[in-house]
């Protein structure tokens, strides 16, 4: 199917990390995949692998709406209510595509055909890793995907400081490092290169 991945307005590290990680896995599986986000996002996330594939709805409405309308399956990542997509909300509501929500925020709204919502989990990136395992797609994991997942986990947990971090979070981080992830490099890129 023609697949679209989207996330909330003002995408953060978890939103972009989860979107770009899933994008790479689905492409490796041979699908046609696009990412459309509502608006621009922080410059310090633009180093993420495949960032150049991202279409910002704001300023590219025509192209973005074409991609939304062509999609047969839409992954809604890191948000629990279509209104969080802001100006994209109407286009997403009007599409006949099936929707899959993968999210960790409380009280998810009932807009998706499939919902994978676990509020006790620290980040959507952790859920994306678990979804990849669940679907038996771990053979498609790469260092680039690891960078994306780790970015979401580290930014949504205050560098693993928050109480939502559990042993599973660290276990996944360890698996990403085993894939060849240079975690110190990711921290440096995220936190030490900003003016």
Strands of the widest sheet, in order across it, are: 3-2-1-4-5-6
Radius of gyration: 16 Å
SSE ordering: EHEEHEHEEHHHH
Alpha plus pi helix count: 7
Strand content is 5-15%
Secondary structural class: alpha/beta
In percent, how helical is the residue content?
40-55%
pLDDT < 50 stretches: none
Measured distance between first and last alpha carbons = 42 Å
Give the overall pLDDT as a whole number: 92
Largest sheet: 6 strands, parallel
Oligomeric state: single chain
What does this molecule look like?
The chain has 7 helices and 6 strands; from the N terminus they run E-H-E-E-H-E-H-E-E-H-H-H-H. The chain is α/β, with parallel strands linked by helices and 195 residues long. A 6-stranded parallel beta sheet has the order 3-2-1-4-5-6, with helices on both faces. Helix 1 links the parallel strand 1 and strand 2. Helix 4 packs antiparallel against helix 5. The longest helix is centred in the N-terminal third of the chain and has 16 residues. It starts with a strand and ends with a helix.
Structure keywords:
195 residues, alpha/beta, 6 strands
